[in-house]
Specification:
Layout: H1 2-8, E1 13-16, E2 22-25, H2 31-42, E3 50-53, H3 59-64, E4 67-71, H4 76-81, E5 84-86, H5 93-102, E6 115-116
Parallel strand pairs: 3-4, 4-5
Antiparallel strand pairs: 1-2, 5-6
Length: 120
């Protein structure tokens, strides 16, 4: 990974995913940037966005989104970037969180299926 970062530092940032692959991200073209475009198009604020992540390529998106969830199987730096924790990917956790949100069972302070990892 260090060699990739060194060789491509001027043109792309190298990040790893949970699955062991390497992503080369052109500066400014990360997931948070794309969510920003959608939020502007739909007239919503960042604090209203729900995002899930489990890899280094999700860091900017998790830091930007008001309802950011790190999966239980995510590395510690991803968990530190998120405001909430969710069960592991294999536990249908994204669906669990979305169902709780739609049912009004979760607010900015967390809920039964999730636990806050930092103050909102």
């Amino acid at each position: 990974m260090a060699d990739i970062q060194r060789l491509h530092a001027a043109s792309a940032a190298a990040t790893s995913s949970v699955h062991g692959s390497v992503n080369l991200i052109v500066p400014g073209h990360h997931k948070a940037n794309r969510l920003n475009i959608l939020a502007q198009r739909w007239g919503i604020e960042h604090h209203q966005v729900l995002a899930f992540g489990d890899g280094s390529n999700d860091l900017e998106m998790l830091k930007q989104s008001g309802f950011s969830f790190a999966m239980a199987n995510a590395p510690q730096r991803v968990k530190a970037a998120a405001r909430y924790a969710a069960p592991a990917n294999n536990d249908a956790s994204v669906l669990q969180v979305i169902e709780k949100m739609l049912a009004g069972e979760m607010s900015r302070t967390g809920g039964a299926a999730v636990r806050p990892v930092m103050p909102p």
